[in-house]
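The protein record filed below.
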Amino acid sequence: MNGQERRDKILSELEKANAPVSATKLAELCSVTRQIIVADVALLRAAGAPICSEYRGYFLEQETGIRRRIVCCHKKDDVRNEFYAIVDQGGKVLNVTVEHSIYGQISVDLTISSRKDADEFVRKTALSGASHLSDLTAGIHIHTLTVPSEESFEAICKTLSDLGILIDHD
């Protein structure tokens, strides 16, 4: 299988997947190393493929609803509450972005759309001992969300505001 055939297979696997697919799994399917898959995904993204990544693997962006941004600030212990406030109103957390004084804008795909996703994110963060991206900016961060309606977005904002987490929204 040449490079183009492999990239076509990667896209095909992502199109039919119901959940994120790990680079390791794609490497097994294509009989190559994980590093080759990572490079292929970079090439596919550069060519415009809507491939997103998260801790569980790669997936194709399938956005529905209204896209909105919120600016939040909280301590590490409030991550679960922040995510619950969003997903309980039908929202989906697409990413987290921070504005770092040296590196500029740093953004990471999250794809949190349920309490289960939120719990898994918190669990994996705790197990790994990893810091949150917002630790670089004293807790201040931006989330891009998709929401089913403006009413849902307003309910999310109210809940986050009541929790003392919301700073601003668009």
